[in-house]
Amino acid sequence: MTRVKYRGIAVADTARERPVLTVQLLDKQPRLTVSTIEDKRQALLAGLGVATMPYPMVEKDIAEGRLRVVSPESTSEIDIIMAWRRDSMGEAKSWCLREIPKLFNGK
Fold first, then answer.
1. Where in 54-97 does DSSP place strands (E)?
2. How many C-beta atoms lie closer than 10 Å to residue 51's C-beta?
3. With 0-12 CB in 10 A as exposed, 13-18 as middle and 19+ as buried, what is 9?
4. Do the beta carbons of residue 50 and residue 10 sit within 8 Å?
5. 52-102 pLDDT, tens per residue?
6. Rounded to 5 degrees, what angle do the CA atoms 11, 16, 17 make?
7. How far apart are the first and last CA of the chain?
């Protein structure tokens, strides 16, 4: 598959103090930018383009035929490291530590 022919679906980079980061999109590839990873999944399910996704988030969709893997040779794994100061554990940080793993475990 030549990805440049298909619209790429991407989550908007919300960095405020760093340069915008674009990953897995080609320079001349048309793109649809969405706000969240779940919006990205919904756009894929609606057939609006192609994208890379964490496998646990789409595993059931693939198994049930709603999505298909079109380029299995480009899979990759990443390590995610979360760090914080122990003396400042607010509610938002507690929520992130509880919810972020769910994104990658598909729960």
1. none
2. 24
3. buried
4. no
5. 888 889 999 999 999 998 876 665 666 666 777 777 777 888 888 888 878
6. 130
7. 31
